[in-house]
Write a structure and sequence with these properties.
With about 525 residues, the protein is of the alpha/beta class. It has four domains: about 5-100 and about 225-265, 3-Layer(aba) Sandwich (D-Maltodextrin-Binding Protein, domain 2); about 105-210, D-Maltodextrin-Binding Protein, domain 2 (3-Layer(aba) Sandwich), CATH 3.40.190; about 305-335 and about 450-520, Rossmann fold (3-Layer(aba) Sandwich), CATH 3.40.50; about 340-450, Rossmann fold (3-Layer(aba) Sandwich). Strands 16-21-20-17-18-19 form a six-stranded mixed β-sheet. Helix 15 links the parallel strand 22 (about 465) and strand 23.
Length: about 525
């Protein structure tokens, strides 16, 4: 029978992060239910053995089996796990009862850019013990580091211990950078004591939130899983409370990630990132890493586009709204609108946030930027900025301005701003006639309208598939060639899609241009 005076006991690991996130869960559950909850700290094998990567140790479930035992023995009523620590198989009698709202799932690179002497350095050493992070770091990181650091060999070395220990090892100079889960650092900002400790550890450091396209998070990273005994003798009282703590969108995404995770065999040895992100009514799937020594890369949206893809003979009837030099000659390209940089008259600007929406804005950034945070729309712009010596703090992953707004609202990013005295103003480097809900427009390029040859106009009239990079582009083309309106129209998931919907124009969205191009070739999931 339910006992209204009972205090429910939550089992947790004893690290600062585990205690902090369990305290946040405790506070949430007490607010939901009006009942009392307490914490019981339990030391795990994974916390005790920190000299080797987990995948080199004998056994499994290094962070969970002691918690599982306490739950099965009735010593605790429930346990809270970082969901990514849970393997594919769970003990009989233990039930997943709740998945709370996901914190940021991204990996974050911490470094001290002011102390790194690239002139004398012979390598750039990154601390991590995750096979997934090792695989993607060695494959891609050099392209995202500023020149001339990017020219150094990128190497990884073992990094174990709790969050405090790992960051302190970076501060002690044992690594040039380390990779951590951003979600853990965000949660440490949630309580005053842990936030104070984190602030001291981060003082003097900087960060890059690594783009999910290349540094895909672990399956269920950023989510907390709450487990209890299956069939508790309390008339389902605890399960009802925990059910109220479940976040539906997070749970829907996690189920998809765990299904893919299990299909690869699961386990801490898995060198594959698996992330599913909900955007409007779409689920964006990212899979990146290695299996059996072979690279695995997949990026696609769900539900899949149901339209029939172009036949081989129709490839030349596909228009892609990029400049000719950026599009295969098999496709029609944008020969009507040319982007030209607009250079600001004043600069540099006070330390703040700078959102660079296109590589056409880079010249302007160099003019106005002195210090602050640099955000980009996608990985191509990030790489272009890195080649010019910029440290980039994060990318929208082609998901629109809202993703940058979410990053800037992160308690971790705000903490860095407090530490470094970076003001909260956001300068959006984009087209001079554009708009943005996240900051003030800093005009950085303009569109010049060119003339099209009669032959090219006829090709566009017979085209059937159009991928637009802006609503302005669609408007300019359809004003000139009304027949284009009869085609099938496509775009990504950012501002362009929103503008089409505002104007009630039928449009089909893909997660990005690459997925659209694969669709035109009949390759749905590549």
């Amino acid at each position: 029978m339910p006992d209204s005076e009972k205090t429910f006991v939550i089992g947790t690991r004893a690290s600062l992060l585990a205690v902090t996130q369990c305290t946040l869960v405790k506070n949430q559950l007490e607010k939901i239910s009006g009942r009392k909850f307490s914490l019981k700290l339990i030391e795990t094998e994974g916390d005790q053995k920190t000299d080797k990567p987990l995948w080199q140790l004998e056994g499994k479930d290094f962070f969970t089996k002691e918690l599982d035992s306490a739950l099965l023995m009735g010593e605790v009523d429930m346990v809270v796990h970082s969901y990514k620590d849970l393997g594919s198989e769970r003990p009989e009698g233990i039930k997943l009862a709740a998945v709370t709202r996901r914190a940021s799932p991204y990996d974050i690179l911490l470094f001290n850019k002011n102390s790194f002497d690239h002139e004398s350095a012979k390598r750039f050493c990154v601390g991590t013990s995750s096979p997934r992070r090792i695989s993607n770091t060695t494959a891609f990181l050099k392209d995202f580091l500023p020149s001339p650091i990017s020219k150094l060999p990128i190497e990884t070395e073992v990094l174990r211990g709790n969050v405090n220990t790992r960051i302190q090892k970076l501060r002690d100079g044992k690594y040039d950078a380390i990779i951590l889960a951003m979600a853990g650092l965000e949660r440490l900002c949630g309580l005053q004591n842990s936030k104070k400790q984190l602030r001291e550890l981060l003082n003097g450091l900087d960060y890059s939130i690594l783009p999910a396209d290349y540094f895909t998070p672990a399956a269920s990273q950023g989510a907390l899983a709450i487990e209890c005994l299956d069939g508790r003798n309390d008339d389902g009282e605890l399960e009802k409370i925990l059910d109220c703590a479940t976040h539906g969108d997070t749970w829907d995404s996690i189920k998809k990630e765990r299904a893919i995770f299990n299909s690869y065999g699961g386990g801490c040895h898995l060198a594959v990132g698996i992330h599913v992100e909900k955007k409007d009514h779409h689920y964006i799937h990212r899979i990146q890493g290695e299996v059996d020594g072979k690279r695995v890369e997949s990026y696609y949206s769900e539900p899949k586009v149901q339209l029939a893809c172009p036949a081989d003979k129709d490839q030349n009837k596909v228009f892609v709204g990029l400049a000719p030099e950026k599009v295969s000659e098999n496709y029609l390209s944008d020969k009507l609108l040319e982007k030209k940089s607009v250079i600001a008259e004043n600069g540099p600007y006070p330390s703040g946030h700078f959102f660079v929406t296109s590589w056409h804005c880079i010249d302007n950034l160099e003019k106005v930027f002195d210090s602050g945070r640099v955000w980009v729309s996608g990985s191509k712009t990030w790489k272009a900025l890195a080649s010019r010596g910029f440290w980039v703090n994060g990318s929208a992953d082609y998901m629109g301005h809202g993703k940058i707004a979410a990053f800037r609202n992160s308690p971790l990013v705000k903490l860095f701003g407090e530490i470094d005295s970076v003001n909260d103003k956001c300068n959006v480097l984009t087209h001079k006639d554009s708009d943005s809900e996240i900051g003030e427009i800093l005009p950085s390029y303009e569109r010049v309208t060119k003339s099209l040859s009669p032959e090219y106009v006829e090709k566009l009239k017979s085209a059937q598939y159009f991928f637009w990079t802006s609503f302005h582009q669609y408007s300019q083309y359809t004003d000139l060639i009304p027949e284009i309106k009869n085609g099938q129209h496509f775009c990504g998931l950012g501002k362009t899609l929103a503008h089409f919907k505002e104007n009630n124009i039928k449009i089909t969205s893909f997660s990005n241009l690459s997925e659209f191009l694969n669709w035109t070739k009949g390759n749905a999931h590549e």
